[in-house]
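Long-time lurker, finally posting.

We've been working with GntR family transcriptional regulator (Gracilibacillus salinarum) and I want a structural starting point before designing mutants. I don't trust myself to interpret raw outputs, so I'm hoping someone here can both generate the structure tokens and explain anything notable. Sequence follows.
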Amino acid sequence: MTDRLKEDQPIFLQIAEMIETSIIDGELTAHTKIPSTNEFSKHYQINPATAAKGINLLVDQSIIYKKRGVGMFVSEEATQIVLAKRKQRFYEQFVKPMLQEANRIEFNSTQLIAWIKEEMENDNKSN
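Top reply, 14 upvotes:
Generated this for you. Predicted structure of GntR family transcriptional regulator:
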């Protein structure tokens, strides 16, 4: 868990995103118990209902499942669900606007693809 919450995004969404990020980073694996709403509440000094709203969002998406009286756990398919969500969001937030701007300024798609490949190769070499 991070120590601070951002002020520009609803807290329940930040709680959900923190859990999702921990899942795709491999910190939380399938069937791992996640912190309780009371633990989130105490750590971030927030209302337990706010933490529960974020966790329930993930339950509704089958990323987290409840074991009555035991707690909340990461589902078997959580990583794939979160990766699919994040890829779709990446496309909507970054790729579509980039392509719209490229079309607006009559940018050549061949050059654009070449730059993306070059950057990805440079990034792979540095890692």
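Before you design anything, note these points.
The chain has a mean pLDDT of 93.
The longest strand covers residues 64-67.
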